[in-house]
Design brief:
Length: 115
């Protein structure tokens, strides 16, 4: 029997430091691993709030990150729209929106996803 779960689901992790991370999550013996992790960042222009994704690391090549359970406050289900746009951003799909179509690069660097 393997120590690593091959099941990966898109989840939002609320970390003990207050950060929120969206990623494909898999469990293993020491905690969990995150595939394609991004910080969920809220931005406001004073009239509306937008959600953007920021790479987990701006200077490292990351496919998977191992994280200890002790660093996770809770695991949440993302809203369907956010999960769909996260997946589309990783795949490099164009998503039509109210402000016109927006190209989401396949590497997912700095995506603005939801307004």
């Amino acid at each position: 029997m393997s120590d690593v779960s091959t099941t990966t689901e898109i989840k939002i992790l609320k970390l003990v430091n207050g950060a929120e991370v969206i990623a494909k999550i898999g469990k293993d013996i020491g905690g969990m691993y995150l595939e394609s992790p991004f910080y969920v960042i809220t931005q406001s222009d004073g009239q509306r709030i937008a959600i953007a994704l920021q790479p987990f690391s701006m200077v490292a090549k990351i496919d998977k990150v191992r994280i200890k359970d002790a660093h996770v406050l809770c695991t949440l289900e993302p809203e369907d729209e956010l999960a769909n746009q996260y997946s589309a951003g990783l795949a490099g799909i164009t998503i039509p929106g109210a402000g016109g179509s927006q190209r989401m690069p396949g590497n997912g660097r700095g995506l603005t996803l939801v307004e």
